[in-house]
TrEMBL record:
SUPFAM superfamilies: Homeodomain-like, P-loop containing nucleoside triphosphate hydrolases, PrpR receptor domain-like. Keywords: Activator, ATP-binding, Cytoplasm, DNA-binding, Nucleotide-binding, Phosphoprotein, Repressor, Transcription, Transcription regulation, Two-component regulatory system. InterPro entries: AAA_lid_NorR, Homeodomain-like_sf, HTH_Fis, P-loop_NTPase, Sig_transdc_resp-reg_PrpR_N, Sigma_54_int. PROSITE patterns: SIGMA54_INTERACT_4. The keyword S-adenosyl-L-methionine does not apply. This is PrpR N-terminal domain-containing protein. The keyword Repressor applies. Residues 301-499 form the Sigma-54 factor interaction domain. Its main location: cytoplasm.
């Protein structure tokens, strides 16, 4: 029995592994980790007595340099290439593939045979990726195919990245290869723990980490508050460390454990070390109106409609304007997506987004004062105000004073429903210096096909689903519906279709069955109360689904609202 750990650089690969039959002579465990996180997982696995590591791409290469047990690479097969090209068949031009020679050679052959117009860029090192992607963007390319690194860098430079996923065929080949090489390697222990530099004089909890996210030292305040120890084990910490070292700037992040939410600040200490300061801590049961989003990524503006084109063309103007921006649209029209894109165009990933939720804002909690202090320490970034129609006039006045005190490097964006503009108060009049009105999906149905293709590609990478397309007649059926819940509702329907359809293509019958049984109109109509029929578990499932819809299916934010962690949410969704 070979005790094996498969380290998947992306979630979809882990889901694919769960669906295949594991050979009886393998004890196979699966974890999701990329690059440095993967190395950390591999080191831990070696200490726990694992005898074989299986991974993919740059993660596998890095692991091989850091452990003494055998490491098997999951190759990218021709089947994998065909899948990703099929997912992108609706894009006529502006597509490039960036990868090592073993990927680009095979991809070039397939493209020649199928007459796909895809530009091939061969790299010899991951350090070359950023330069190539910047050149491709300047040449007018909008979509880049590649491995996890290519997709991550594409997001950073403002391109849409599409991941080449590995299918079950590639995983089974890797298991066969693992069986062959297993007996040629020996296990050794390689410990990398360093303890130096103390911070006991600092009156707030602080820890010092190395470039791998490993603890070097913790100060006395951190040690005295035993609850802080959970921060060290958070999966967000390695990502924060990488961001700080890459940009050599302060980075904010919100993390959580079973009992608390933590607001932390990462700051560079040297080229290989990062300090983490706990700036705030609150119980999970305590609602909070101000959230820091420390790593806002690039989000594409999807669609072929005039509005989608106009937004893509003018997004830079909204980003460069120092005036507050009010984005107006019905629920589910993509207001937050546009706000995050404006932020990315102005600041990139180096600066945080601070979200203020009006329906949770309370005067007596002093949260506006905390917001003012936070923005002074952040120095530059975006404040997004959501649900401001829920607060009273007294809070409006105080919030306006706080906003007026922001430095010019802070971009203010308000997300408002159409009825909010009709509120008679000075706040919305002042905040609407620049306005952007989003039309509902029922008035831009030509964008439905683009959204469906984008969502299917996203779910394929996330969940490892085999569904890669929708038949034309099924797509036309979706266009006959008025979509009162707009893009959010469409995404929910496409997600369920991709999860429940075992075929490669969604048929008209699949769409009809779901739309007829789901009772979409009643369940998504604004103001419609949740049904209390059924068992407690039935009611709980309806509440979870409603919160997920409200949070645009962002599981981290949904878990926070529900007062549970992501693993608990995932378990309940599977029940």
């Amino acid at each position: 029995m070979v005790k094996t750990l498969l380290i998947a650089p992306y979630q979809g690969l882990a889901e694919t592994v769960k669906k295949i039959g594991i050979p009886e002579d393998f004890q196979l465990d699966v974890t999701v980790a990329n690059l440095e996180e993967g190395v950390k997982a591999a080191k831990s696995a070696e200490k726990q007595g694992y005898e074989l590591i299986i991974s993919r791409g740059g993660t596998a290469t890095m692991i091989q340099d850091n452990v003494s047990i055998p490491v098997v690479h999951i190759d990218i097969t021709g089947y994998d290439m065909l899948r990703v090209f099929t997912l992108l068949r609706g894009i006529k031009n502006g597509v490039a593939l960036v990868g090592y020679a073993n990927i680009s050679r095979g991809a070039a052959t397939i493209c020649n045979i199928l007459e796909y117009d895809v530009k091939m860029v061969t790299i010899n090192s991951r350090r070359e990726v950023r330069g190539h992607l910047i050149n491709l963007k300047e040449q007018g390319y909008s979509v880049v195919i590649g491995d996890v690194i290519t997709v991550q860098v594409a997001e950073q430079v403002g391109l849409r990245g599409v991941l080449i996923t590995s299918g079950r065929e590639a995983v089974m080949e890797a298991l066969e290869e693992g069986r062959r090489v297993y007996n040629f390697f020996k296990r050794v222990n390689n410990q990398l723990y360093y303890y130096q530099e103390t911070f006991n004089s600092i009156p707030v909890p602080v820890i010092l980490l190395n470039k791998d996210g490993e603890l070097i030292e913790k100060n006395l305040t951190f040690e005295q508050e035993s609850g802080n120890l959970h921060i060290i084990d958070s999966p967000y910490i390695p990502r924060l460390v990488r961001k700080v070292l890459q940009n050599q700037t302060n980075q904010w992040e919100e993390i959580e454990d079973e009992n608390y939410f933590y607001e932390i600040l990462g700051f560079p200490v040297s080229e290989t070390r990062v300090g983490i300061m706990v700036q705030g801590k609150r119980p999970r049961t305590e609602a909070k109106s101000v959230h820091v989003i420390g790593s806002p990524g690039h989000l594409p503006i999807i669609g072929e409609s005039d509005q989608a084109g106009n937004i893509r063309e003018n997004i830079g103007r909204y980003a460069q304007s120092s005036a507050p921006l009010c984005i107006v649209g019905e629920t589910g029209t993509g207001k937050y997506t546009i706000a995050q894109r404006v932020h990315f165009e102005r600041f990139g990933q180096q600066s945080p987004i601070v979200m203020v939720e009006g329906f949770r804002l309370k005067e007596q909690n002093g949260e506006l004062d905390q917001l003012a202090n936070k923005m002074m320490s952040i120095k530059e970034g975006t404040v997004i105000l959501k649900g401001m129609e829920s607060i009273n006039s007294q809070l409006y006045k105080k919030l306006q004073v706080v906003i007026n005190a922001f430095p010019e490097s802070i971009k203010v964006i308000v997300l408002a429903r159409p009825e909010a503009e009709r509120i008679e108060n000075d706040f919305y009049k002042k905040i609407s210096a620049d306005s952007l009105h989003l039309i509902p999906l029922r008035e831009r149905k030509e964008d439905i096909s683009s959204f469906v293709e984008y969502f299917l590609a996203e779910f394929h990478a996330e969940d490892g689903n085999e569904t890669i397309g929708m038949k034309t007649e099924a797509m036309e059926y979706l266009k006959d519906y008025d979509w009162p819940g707009n893009i959010t509702e469409l995404k929910k329907i496409v997600r369920e279709l991709s999860m429940t359809t075992s075929a490669h293509y969604i048929e008209l019958s699949h769409v009809k069955e779901l739309m007829e049984t789901y009772r979409v109109e009643e369940s998504t109509r604004p103001g419609n109360a949740l049904s209390l029929e059924g068992t407690l578990n039935d009611i709980e499932q309806r509440v979870i689904k409603q919160v997920l819809e409200d949070e645009n299916h962002n599981q981290s934010r949904a878990a926070k609202r529900l007062g549970i962690n992501r693993s608990t949410l995932w378990r309940k969704l599977k029940e």
